[in-house]
Amino acid sequence: MYLGVIIFLCSLHAITVNALGNVTDRLALLKLKECIADDPHGILMSTWNDSIHFCDWPGITCSRRHGRVTALNLRAYDLRGSISPFISNLTFLRFIHLGNNGYFGEIPLEVGNLKRLQHLNLTNNMSSGKIPVSLVNCSELRSVDLAKNRLIGIIPLEFGSLTKLETLRISVNNLTGDIPASLGNLSSTSFKTFSAAYNNLMGNIPDEIGRLKICSFLQHRAINFPV
Ligand SMILES: *[C@@H]1O[C@H](CO)[C@@H](O)[C@H](O)[C@H]1NC(C)=O
Ligand SMILES: *[C@@H]1O[C@H](CO)[C@@H](O)[C@H](O)[C@H]1NC(C)=O
Ligand SMILES: *[C@@H]1O[C@H](CO)[C@@H](O)[C@H](O)[C@H]1NC(C)=O
Ligand SMILES: *[C@@H]1O[C@H](CO)[C@@H](O)[C@H](O)[C@H]1NC(C)=O
Ligand SMILES: *[C@@H]1O[C@H](CO)[C@@H](O)[C@H](O)[C@H]1NC(C)=O
Ligand SMILES: *[C@@H]1O[C@H](CO)[C@@H](O)[C@H](O)[C@H]1NC(C)=O
Ligand SMILES: *[C@@H]1O[C@H](CO)[C@@H](O)[C@H](O)[C@H]1NC(C)=O
Ligand SMILES: CC(=O)N[C@H]1CO[C@H](CO)[C@@H](O)[C@@H]1O
């Protein structure tokens, strides 16, 4: 009798989570669409509508189990607009690829709420402002590619605590300051690729980073490789 009640409550809970979750996901995607000012190929404007389920919209992948959005892949759609902070409501998101578009404005700090995020690729856009420190809360991150944008400020030293990070590409931006020594702590984990060329970085390259297999500092000012 007790067991039956528990099973009933659990399945009720699962249904509620899904019912609320998929409604939140749909709303978040519509908010992302609202922030697109120009969609020259009409990809979002003419296909992201309720005639088909959002899991079947171009660029969207959902998990079979929960019917929640796990990947957002809008690469090279020539979209121009900003990234809505509502992106953080896609709580099952593991993969974001918005590369080769015209995204401008700041990367919303709310992205830091995406606890399952593993890959973030915003390469070749016009994102400005600072790299949000909140990304350190995405502890599952494997790759972060912010290359070819207009980012300013420093490389957050907190990135040294992203223990699953394999790739960090921040080349071709307008970043300043030092390459944080804390990144050296990653070299003993799975960290393999670090690319920071074409910025306004200064100072020494920490020994540990200099020993990484793939490492690019081309055009790094005041290069001072450790011997
Ligand atoms: C959300 O999930 C519930 C329960 O599985 C389902 O009845 C409903 O149609 C779904 N709504 C959307 C927009 O997917
Ligand atoms: C809604 O999207 C479908 C494809 O997903 C498209 O064929 C249809 O024309 C769209 N409807 C409107 C009103 O844009
Ligand atoms: C979704 O995201 C927005 C912006 O970050 C936030 O204001 C809102 O409370 C979030 N939650 C839901 C359920 O929409
Ligand atoms: C990380 O998340 C915690 C808990 O939600 C929050 O208090 C903290 O401010 C976040 N850190 C950053 C750098 O945003
Ligand atoms: C990001 O996307 C670009 C373009 O699709 C690709 O060349 C690059 O390898 C990606 N970055 C990572 C870290 O996967
Ligand atoms: C980069 O920043 C410097 C110093 O703030 C500024 O003088 C320069 O114009 C910027 N370059 C680009 C390409 O934004
Ligand atoms: C590296 O990690 C250790 C142990 O967590 C910590 O004490 C140390 O301060 C870190 N080094 C840097 C440069 O952040
Ligand atoms: C389509 C578009 O505007 N892409 C831009 C993305 O950002 C890079 C770097 O800022 C530009 O070179 C691209 O033209």
Description:
By secondary structure, the chain is of the alpha/beta class. The protein contains three helices and 15 strands. The strands form three sheets. The protein has an eight-stranded mixed beta sheet, with no helix packed on it. The radius of gyration is 20 Å and the shape is globular. The structure holds 2-acetamido-2-deoxy-beta-D-glucopyranose (NAG) (8 copies). One 2-acetamido-2-deoxy-beta-D-glucopyranose binds near residues 160, 181 and 182.
**What's the β-strand tally?**
15
Tell me the strand percentage band. 15-25%
Measured on Cα atoms, how large is the radius of gyration?
Answer: 20 Å
* DSSP summary: helix tally: 3
User: Runs with pLDDT <50, length 5+?
Assistant: 218-227
Main beta-sheet annotation: 8 strands, mixed
Sketch the topology as an H/E string, one letter per element.
HEHEEEEEEEEEEEEEHE
Class from secondary-structure proportions: alpha/beta
Ligands (ions, cofactors included): 2-acetamido-2-deoxy-beta-D-glucopyranose
Q: In one word, what is the shape?
A: globular
The overall pLDDT, averaged over residues, is 88
Helix content: 10-25%
